[in-house]
Amino acid sequence: MLTAVILSRYFNKIEYGTYRQILYVYTTLLVVFSLGLPNVFAYFLPRFKKEEGDFIIRKVNNILFLVGIIFSALLFFFSDSIALLLNNKELSMGLKIFSPMPFLMLPTVGLEGIFSTYKKTLYIAKYQIITRIIMLLCIIIPVIFFKSSYQYALYGWLFSSVISLIIALNFKKIPFRGVINKKADLTYKQILTFSLPLSIAGFWGIAIKSAPQFFISRNFGTEFFAIFSNGFIELPFVSMVTVAASTILLPYFSQLVHNNSNVEELVKVWKSTLVKSTMIIYPIVIFFLINSNNIIQLLYTKSYSQSVIYFQIAMSLNFFNIIIFAPLIFAFGKTKFYSLIHFLIAFLLWGLSYVSVFLFNTPIIFAILYVVLKIIMVFIFLYFSSRLLGKKIIQIIPLKKIVIIFVHSLTVGILINSSISIIFYDCSMFLNLFINFFFFSIIVFFTGPLFSIKYFKLLKTFLKK
Q1: What letter does residue 427 receive in the DSSP assignment?
Q2: 253 vs 239: CA distance, rounded Å
Q3: 311 close to 435: Cβ distance less than 8 angstroms
Q4: Residue 131 and residue 167 in contact, taking contact as beta carbons nearer than 8 Å
Q5: In angstroms, rounded to a whole number, what is the distance separating the alpha carbons of residues 202 and 200?
Q6: How does the average pLDDT of the chain come out, rounded?
Q7: Are residues 322 and 438 located together in one domain of the fold?
Q8: 128 and 50, same structural domain?
Q9: Which residue of 160, 287, 296, 382 has the fewest C-beta atoms within 10 A of its own C-beta?
Q10: How many CB atoms lie within 10 A of CB 40?
Q11: Looking at per-residue confidence, does 285 or 22 come out higher?
């Protein structure tokens, strides 16, 4: 996000749009070429002795290096075709410069699974902080001090990736210091048998996510792609909460299902998690929605004011994707159904987007289609989850509580925003947002208990650890 904020100020929209298109191509293909291998470590390492762990990691790394070479070659030799597909000739040169990246970055994946298995999660934080700071500096320094060009940003990124690769390969050996390594009875076939189905499911997820980017890039040009990219973003706070909750719930639900435990216990935990997630996410999303115009202009300058509408459309999805259904579905072993629904939504989204090119002459339609179909997918999974539990939807969703939290945060947000706009109308955008957020947070927190929203209790839970 910080890189995007800085580069938006140094690049024109053509340069910045090309830079974002390169990221789009890379992230789209990365899911396919990673073959689900980042998840292999967390699955296999706990099943083998620690002495065999280093052997397993080296075996998976061999696959990652091989796939990285293939991925890099594809970007280089098919750069012209990809540029033609996305209707940007400049993209071809950018992809050629960027092409060594997969070879350098793929072997760095999977650190989370390794250190989580051996309870050394502090090293995950260390690696992320060190490598992200290096990457940020290597990308922005050439642009600021040498030349305001996306190509210089790519050269800096490549340099930082070499450093990240060296650090990652050394970090992967940390859990095995002082351990006598042994050969593990694990074949490449076993690894790929586990990882490939995950890759297929991930592919459909990327197909869904990339549809609006493709059609806007293809039909409305690089400048519109830059405007869309800066607006149609996901708040990191939301995924921080939902991913963390999913990580905790999956093994817990799996144990309950395996032991044929009382369904009521599972429903109770799920509803409690939903309420807590809503208490954290809804106020943040509502604040960002109400102040979206100032936030976008502050982040990306007034030249990206058109990005506001995309930001608002993207934010609306967060009111629905707080429903954490994946751990429940996985716990019941219904991964094929999970993959099938992603395929159907991807098929519908690409089909409807193609038709929309001829029916509507606006890029906004692609953002709306994406959000609507994602919401439909949430309700499909919600209905399926209720069937798995033998309950009605209303019995597994704390709807009343969610509505109260929504109305409370929205009311406070509107009142505070209106008051601040009148009293501090001549303030800078930054000061306006700071004052707005300060009073919004304080009033939401202290008036919550009046509506049985226990923010104090939630805060005490966080402060315990």
Answers
A1: S
A2: 20
A3: no
A4: yes
A5: 5
A6: 81
A7: yes
A8: yes
A9: 382
A10: 26
A11: 285
129 and 265 fall within a common domain:
no
Looking at per-residue confidence, does 41 or 341 come out higher?
341
Contact (CB, 8 A) for 304 and 4: no
Q: Is the pLDDT of residue 88 over 90?
A: no
CA dist 197 and 215 (Å) reads: 27
The two most distant CA atoms of the chain are separated, in Å, by 70
Token pair in block for residue 402: 């969610």
Confidence of residue 198 (pLDDT cuts 50, 70, 90): low
- Rounded distance between C-alpha atoms, residue 144 and residue 323, angstroms: 42
Contact between 38 and 110 under an 8 Å Cβ cutoff? The reply is: yes
Q: What is the mean pLDDT of residues 49-67?
A: 84
CA distance 56 to 61: 9
Assess whether pLDDT exceeds 60 at residue 465: no
What pLDDT, on a 0 to 100 scale, did the predictor assign at position 247?
A: 63
Reported as a pLDDT band with limits 50, 70 and 90, residue 344 is: very high
Q: Say if 204 falls within a structural domain.
A: no
For the purposes of burial, counting CB atoms within 10 Å of the CB of 361, is it exposed (0-12), middle (13-18) or buried (19 or more)? exposed
Task: Tell me which of 377 and 195 has the higher pLDDT.
Answer: 377
Per-position DSSP letters for 183-232, written without gaps between them: -----HHHHHHHHHHHHHHHHHHHHHHHHHHHHHHHHHHHHHHHHHHHHS
Residue 155 inside a domain? The answer is yes
Say how far apart CA 224 and CA 243 lie, in whole Å. 31
What pLDDT shows up at residue 407? 93
Domain assignment of residue 365, given as a range: 232-465
Classify 430 in phi/psi space as left (phi over 0), alpha (psi -120 to 50) or beta.
alpha
Residue 397, CB-side half-sphere exposure with 13 Å CA sphere: 20
Residue that terminates a domain, selected from 193, 220, 252? 193
Answer yes or no: do 164 and 237 share one domain.
no
Taking the model in full, what pTM does it have? 0.69
- CA atoms of 197 and 187, how far apart (whole Å): 17
**Residue 239, SS3 per DSSP:** helix
